[in-house]
Write a structure and sequence with these properties.
The structure holds two protein chains of two kinds. Chain A is built from ten helices and ten strands. By secondary structure, chain A is an alpha/beta fold. Chain B has a single domain, classed as 3-Layer(aba) Sandwich (Rossmann fold), CATH 3.40.50. The mean pLDDT of chain B is 86. Classes of the chains: A alpha/beta, B alpha/beta.
Chain lengths: 270, 339
Amino acid sequence: MTLEKKLYLSAKGVSKVFGFGNQKTVAVDNVDLDLYEGEVVSIVGESGSGKTTLSKILLGLINQTEGDIYFQGVKRDISSHAKKREYWKNIQAIFQDPFSSYNTFNKIDTVLLDCINMRGGKYFPREKKIELMKEACSFVNLKFEELTNKYPFELSGGQMQRLMIARIFLLKPKILLADEPTSMIDACSRATILDELMHLRKEIGMTIIFITHDIGLAYYVSDKVCIMEKGRFVETGTADSVILTPHHAYTKRLINDVPKIHEEWDLTTV
Amino acid sequence: MANVMLEVNELSTKYITRFQEDVYAVDKVSIKVEEGKSLGIAGESGCGKSTLALSLMGYYFPPLHYMGGDIIINGNKISGLDPDHVRKTVLGKEIAYIPQAAMNALNPTRKIIHFIEDVILEHEMYVTKKDIYERAKKLFETLGLPPEVLQKYPVELSGGMKQRTVIAISVLLLPKVLIADEPSSALDVTSQKMVIKMMKHLMDAGFISSMIFITHELPLLYNVVDDIMVMYAGQIVEKGSSHEMVFDPIHPYSKGLMGSIIVPEEGLRDVKLTAIPGVPPNLKKPPSGCRFAERCKYVRPECRVTSVPLREAGDGRVYRCIIPETELRENYAREEQKK
């Protein structure tokens, strides 16, 4: 197959250093990442390995110390707030903790309405807006009738995270950055969410960066897996090659630490 | 027969919302946990797992209210007692509870040793602070935690360390039953393994006699507990040994749950995860018939009419379905063939 895929987002030699002198911490250390259209790339690592810092750099929430980020072949420019807003139309995120992702004072209708407004639906008739919101809710297995006129704190963590994915459904970004999206969702709806995310990806050709510590999940969803340790990529490759035949000692340890059902889980190695 | 540590008979509790509506979150749940055994509770979010854990403590505060049933710990009935009495004599000594976000329970302005002093001084009078420190240090050393932790503030500890500290504090007074509500979710795999190792150590070293482990991570549950109980909409739908429950579930809901297991093993990518469509019923008005009927693939008209009792399937295994075990298994076999 010679069909060339479009390079969406690429990071070249990105580093991030926090503090200086004795307090210096290198959170992300010279990372190269290429992201092609429609691909699912997983970044796997323990907590403290720099996954979230890297994702924040890619989102443009914090600036990198060194290196460049190219979006669709052009160097990313997020120097002003207006330019950032333009950039965020293309890249959206789902965060780890749904409890702190919402404005506590806004009702759920407002959360979804904001997304419709952002996608140019500000002057849609009321019925159309409600229809869109209903569609988005049913996409993630929620009932809109039960959500309307409620505040985010009245929902469970799983419901909040699903609502977050409903937002993505309305926003239809080109790149989705999912930072441990299912760590607070139960296993049963996790399957639904993953299926829907993959469906959404096929439908609008969305590219997904999956940041997770769950190596089983990374194996299930992704085409490419990057294993991150102390700010560096220690192993990169296709999902099958990395997970089934790991080479690096760190990858081996990570896989060994996950509870399995067909093999004995060795508790003595910690 | 081993000594029964925790016995629960037809426990029912409800929430009363601020609009004075009743939500029947736990409906006639009966549990029996023997000494030295652990029980796992699995289920979707919103099916009453955490409420059951709260109800088991016998300490009810609004909006949770007690409706009926008995809780017996090692021969002593603790349900229906005065809440203040329960707090002083039962909690911590008989039964201990690790809440879901346990690591956020630590007050950031106080050192770890202060929490331990609080717990001990509430239950025992005339203990000097030095004694408490020695006791805590000994406990931390046995559990494999560095004793320096005692003099630190919560912010100085990592998530896994905080979680293990909270577990260590909860077993200070040597409770008989420990209820762990998702102790390892939101931790990465290595810390999770350390937490689990410590909990297993607690059982082996005799700090606790029995354990109730609540999580939705089925591979983890399979590796930790002896028996698994699946809950749906406030009721028990199936119970059995962990091996049987994971590889040979009877109830359609358990079957669906087991179909959503993700483990990094060969062949996972070829398996299509089975998701159960729909959402759990609203427990303000629980359905009169089978609560799973709305989402069940094998639903029959009679399912929706009367409530379904638990049925025996041999070896202490129970399930809640109108359709007999053999017929359900035939259905599953047919579906396997179709794939």
